[in-house]
């Protein structure tokens, strides 16, 4: 088995925990996975979607006290500026953090480079560890969707070549979307971020990413709490004296899928990071894997075109709490 210096159990060799996970890392106690370009990504991060509001003290607590070292955000979430303040308040050096953001489709094409620089400015950093295209869909006002996709990716590659981003990725890309991108890209995406939890495990897409040396990264590891009452999840949690949420996050990690749970409550944020001191055995993993038959996908991309012009962070609904006034 692999252990960290603090003797936290990370995992045992099994069919569900392979050698790609790297224990020798620089993110405090958080284990990481190595991307194809050699950059290490923490296996656990903090999600910051605009659903449910933004609670500044909880974010600072996550970074400073719970040692979350990956922060996942997007221009669309409308909280990049607030996160930049939280990072500074945490006192954690920038180089000890893995910071992600995403490109919204309205900024495809010639606007990519500038959009990334503006995200960096709002976040108070001069580089990102990972920058992703948020969706593969091209807005209808672009005359040639294929040409727009190619120009967008060329601009992403330029950001990577210029050192503004340490790794380059995509989000919500299906196998078909990835195959199209791989036909014209010079630099393969290092990451594909997609929904992943016991009730939604897109195995074919995960396998395709693995074969192409693309890290499959999972959002919604708790399915927004909608699967925590499943009897199988509760039984596994009871067996290990853990919570259902911890079991779901651990399920992602043992599948080598970096997880980015979100919570506004400090107690939940602490709970969600206590996932490296136990191991799900093969019986547990097989039992949880069977839940995939339910195919309970949480995030829908239907009607995306209609939402493109809604303001960034529109789901916050004014719920932004505790952010200090700074000049």
From TrEMBL:
Residues under site feature: Lowers pKa of active site Tyr: 102
UniProt keyword Oxidoreductase, yes or no: yes
UniProt keyword list: Oxidoreductase
Pfam families attached to this UniProt entry: Aldo_ket_red
Highest taxon of the lineage: Eukaryota
Gene3D superfamilies associated with the record: NADP-dependent oxidoreductase domain
Record InterPro entries: AKR, Aldo/ket_reductase_CS, NAD(P)_OxRdtase_dom_sf, NADP_OxRdtase_dom
Positions of the catalytic residues: 77
Name by which UniProt lists this protein: Aldo_ket_red domain-containing protein
Gene Ontology molecular functions: oxidoreductase activity
Binding site for substrate: 134
Family to which the UniProt record says this protein belongs: Belongs to the aldo/keto reductase family.
Lineage: Eukaryota, Metazoa, Ecdysozoa, Nematoda, Chromadorea
Residue stretches making up the NADP-dependent oxidoreductase domain: 57-292
PROSITE patterns: ALDOKETO_REDUCTASE_2, ALDOKETO_REDUCTASE_3
